[in-house]
């Protein structure tokens, strides 16, 4: 079945460091890809998305490019802040799936940014 | 605009007890769903609904029931709580049933079963 694999955390960085969180996927078709972020004590919220190969999603300084050839959607940010400390989830959905049409989530990567 | 509202925020149950987790959205979303979040396992889909009167099973439905009598509400019922159901539960909704629009999540219910 479809699956998403993320790098294990926690990832600990100093403020202003460069961030990469790896995400790879396995899917039977051509999925749409997402990054969701969960701040402490809150539900998940959409950070960015890409719907087709070579698309780049971006938001709040974060970027991720849909790489079909490597089945990857790595999350990057050039300069992290303490306020970016959260858990990040990579997810996919197959829109041609006429069944559940549900997101498949990775296990999440905790980011800790130290001042 | 409240978004997705879940109650309660915290709950402790004894094995065998039943309870209902409430979820309401005020965005007129067609699609609603319940996930559970466990350490190292991400989020797993329990049940979902594509509209009032329509529900279906997700990845881990055993031990849970749902109903969707209105567009706004999607309660999750634990029939006979077990320690394996200790988890954080999230309700999520989106505008369309197809999956083009983003999911909106509630703030979660942390359930402990002793």
Indicate the percent of residues in helices of chain B: under 10%
Question: Shape of chain B, please?
Answer: globular
What's the total count of β strands of chain A?
A: 12
Q: Bin the strand percentage of chain B.
A: over 45%
- Oligomeric state as shown: heterodimer
SSE order of chain A, one letter for each helix or strand? EEEEEEEEEEEE
Weakly predicted, low-confidence segments of chain A: none
Tell me what the structure shows.
The complex is a heterodimer of chains A (115) and B (114). Chain A has 115 residues and is mainly β. Helices cover 0% and strands 49% of the residues of chain A. In chain A, the strands form 3 sheets. In chain A, strands 2, 5, 6, 10, 11 and 12 form a 6-stranded mixed sheet that branches. The termini of chain A are far apart. In chain A, 38% of the residues are buried. Chain B is an all-beta fold and 114 residues long. Helix content of chain B is 0%, strand content 51%. Chain B contains no helices and 11 strands. Chain B is globular. The mean pLDDT of chain B is 94. The chains are: A mainly beta (115), B mainly beta (114). Chains A and B meet through strand 5 and strand 6 of A and strand 4, strand 5 and strand 10 of B.
């Amino acid at each position: 079945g479809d699956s998403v694999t993320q790098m294990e955390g926690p990832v600990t960085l100093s403020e202003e460091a460069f961030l990469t969180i790896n995400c790879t996927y396995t899917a039977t078709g051509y999925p749409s890809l997402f990054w969701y972020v969960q701040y402490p004590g809150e539900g998940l919220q959409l950070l960015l998305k890409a719907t087709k190969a070579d698309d780049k999603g971006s938001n709040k300084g974060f970027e991720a490019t849909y790489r079909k050839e490597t089945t990857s959607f790595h999350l990057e940010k050039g300069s992290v802040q303490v306020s970016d400390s959260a858990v990040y989830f990579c997810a996919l959905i197959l829109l041609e799936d006429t069944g559940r049409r549900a997101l498949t989530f990775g296990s999440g990567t905790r980011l800790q940014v130290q001042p | 605009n409240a978004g997705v509202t879940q109650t309660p925020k915290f709950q402790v149950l004894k094995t065998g007890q039943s309870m209902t987790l409430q979820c309401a959205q005020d965005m007129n979303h067609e699609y609603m769903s319940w996930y559970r979040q466990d350490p190292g396992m991400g989020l797993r889909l329990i049940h979902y609904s594509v509209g009032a009167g329509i529900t279906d099973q997700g990845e881990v439905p055993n031990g849970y029931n749902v109903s969707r009598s209105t567009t706004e509400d999607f309660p999750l019922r634990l029939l006979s709580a077990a320690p394996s159901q200790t988890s954080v539960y999230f309700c999520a909704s989106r505008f369309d049933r197809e999956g083009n629009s983003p999911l909106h999540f509630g703030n979660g219910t942390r359930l402990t079963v002793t």
